[in-house]
Structures are given as C-alpha cells and as structure tokens.
Amino acid sequence: MIEHQLTPILSIGLFVACILLFIVVFFMIYTIIQIKKASVALADFLAATDLKINPLIKETEETLKSIRTVSDDIGLATSNIKNISGTLSDLSNKVNALGLLAESLSDQLSIRASGVKAGITAALNVLFDKRKKGGS
Fold first, then answer.
1. DSSP type of residue 43
2. Which residues of 119-129 are buried (b: 16+ CB within 10 A; e: fewer)?
3. Residue 125 half-sphere exposure toward CB, CA atoms < 13 A
4. Whole-prediction pTM value?
5. Does Membrane count among this protein's keywords (predicted)?
6. How far apart are CA 55 and CA 21, in angstroms?
7. pLDDT digits over 10-49, tens only?
8. SS3 label, residue 57
C-alpha cells in the first residue's frame, strides 16, 4: 500500500525533474547563444577599433618624429646663439681693450703735446728776451 502511494509522488517528482532539466537545458542554450552574440559583437568592435587605431598610431609616430626634428632644430639654434653670444662677448672685450689703448695713447700724446708746447713757449721766451736785450 505504501508502494501505491509513493508511485504517484515519484512520478510527479520525475516529471518535475524532467521539466527542470528541460528548463535548465533551454536556459543553457539561450545563455550560450547570448555569449556567442556578445563575443561576435566584441570581435566586431575590436576589429573596428583596430581599423581606427592603426592610422592614429601612424599619425602619432609622424607627430613624434616632427617634434623630435623641431627639438633638434631648437638645440642647433640654441648652440648657434651661444656661439654668437660668445663671439660678441669677445668682440666687446677687444673693443674695450682698443678703447683703453686709445685712451692711453691720447694721454701720452697730450703729455707730449704739453711738453712740446712748454718747450716752444720757453724757447720763444728766451728768444724774445735775447732780442729785447739787444741780441741777435
């Protein structure tokens, strides 16, 4: 008698288990399909991104080369400016030395001119004094 009572319960349990198994299989198939769609969409996105990124990478490389060239040119210009500055400094020192030499020469000529002037004045005074005294 107990067996007769358990049989319907077991058959209902087996039926419920079969339905649950069917539902689980259905959801697994649905999940696999959705994962496949997502992976295809991701692959398409990555391919499109790759197509967009490659030209950007090439352009970035060209920009970096241009920046490197400009940087080298700036370095060369800076070096040239340093050379010009050094040359101008040397020229300034030489002009300053030339000015000092000219000032020294001017001072020496002024002293000599004063000496010659004093000598001529003294000679003329002596000559005039001799003439006043009746000398020749």
1. H
2. eeeeeeeeeee
3. 6
4. 0.46
5. yes
6. 52
7. 888 899 999 999 999 999 999 999 999 999 999 999 999 9
8. helix
